[in-house]
Amino acid sequence: MDINLDKIRTFFATDRYAARAGIVIDAVTEDSVQCSMPITADHLNAGGAVQGGAIFTLTDLAFAVHSNLPLLCGAKVGITVGQSNSISYLATAKGKTLIARSTCLSRGRSVSVFRVEVHDELGNFIAEMRGNGFTKAA
Which pLDDT score, from 0 to 100, does residue 1 have? Predict the structure, then answer.
């Protein structure tokens, strides 16, 4: 698979919600995608912790990038969209940056399953998301 990080970043630059959250696509391989998000005052909830929706947005972008790698690398497939997602929040972030790393658990012709772990830069395990993707016909 010929992975072009600039092409991937350009494609996802149109995801304005993720861009406004400050999410960056850091690294992409066939086996893993890493995205990060600086924690700012805009990401905090009323209790002073990172808002669950901000964490989910980070995991959703990592999932979207990873699940669409075949399309972005030239395969004759349609776009993959989220079919169902489940997230577990495990701890409050102590650091200043959240880092999401995805792994593919299963990829079929039209259905795929990914796991996305979120840690802060201090190594604290913050959340885990499972995402099921559906790949549309080309």
Answer: 80
* Residue 116, pLDDT score: 99
d(CA 90, CA 109): 32
**pLDDT higher than 90, residue 112:** yes
Q: The domain containing residue 39 runs over which residues?
A: 5-135
Q: How many domains does the chain have?
A: 1
Phi, psi (degrees; rounded to nearest 5) at 120: -90, 175
CA dihedral defined by 9, 14, 98, 60, rounded to 10 degrees? -100
pLDDT digits (tens, 9 = 90+) for 47-78: 999 999 999 999 999 999 999 999 999 999 99
Strand partners, 100: 35, 118
- What CATH number does residue 97 fall under? 3.10.129.10
